[in-house]
Write a structure and sequence with these properties.
Organism: marine metagenome
Helix content: 25-40%
Pfam family, one: Sua5_yciO_yrdC
Largest sheet: 7 strands, mixed
GO cellular component, one term: cytoplasm
Shape: globular
CATH class: Alpha Beta
Main location: cytoplasm
Radius of gyration: 15 Å
Number of strands: 7
Distance between the termini: 18 Å
CATH topology: DHBP synthase
Order of helices and strands: HEEHEHEHEEHE
Number of helices: 5
InterPro entries: DHBP_synth_RibB-like_a/b_dom, Sua5-like_dom, TC-AMP_synthase_SUA5
């Protein structure tokens, strides 16, 4: 299914988005920097589909779009400098690479044991995360190696 949904979302659109995310479908959406592709980060099916769409090598893990609620569930750190960065720059266009929680689904783990996470300042992204009730894969909406999309 293809649907163009404008923000702010109506109640009907929020219901549709919740269904799309729970059915492990892929969404395209604006962020504060470029257009992104994403979906339920805990779904291997979503990750596989985005790898296929982007023609991205499997050894390049996806960053996750999160809210603060998800940070300590996904990542481990004990460094006050990380806390300082979070306080100074989030929400915003800063991606942090932190040690990943070893209990994450296998498709989110990589050889380095790290996870790239961003708390986006985009109200669209924040609302998508709230509606889905989980973090999103958040990668640029372009084929791997091509320029990122900045307009629709």
């Amino acid at each position: 299914m293809t649907a163009l949904i404008k923000y702010p979302f109506t109640n009907d659109n929020e219901s549709l988005i919740t269904d799309i995310l729970s059915e492990n479908q892929v969404l395209a959406f604006p962020t504060e920097t470029v257009y992104g592709l994403g979906g339920n980060a805990f779904s291997k099916e979503v990750a596989d589909r985005i790898y296929l769409i982007k023609q991205r090598p499997r050894n390049k893990p996806f960053p996750l779009l999160i809210t603060l609620k998800w940070l300590k569930k996904l990542c481990l750190w004990n460094d006050s400098r990380i806390d300082d960065l979070i306080e100074a720059f989030w929400p915003g266009p800063l991606t942090l690479i932190l040690k990943s929680n070893p209990d994450l689904p296998k498709h989110l783990n990589n050889n380095s044991g790290t996870l790239a996470v961003r708390y986006s300042s985009s109200t669209v992204v924040q609302r998508l995360i709230e509606l889905g009730e989980y973090p999103l894969i958040g990668t640029s909406a372009n084929r791997s190696g091509f320029p990122a999309c900045t307009s629709a």
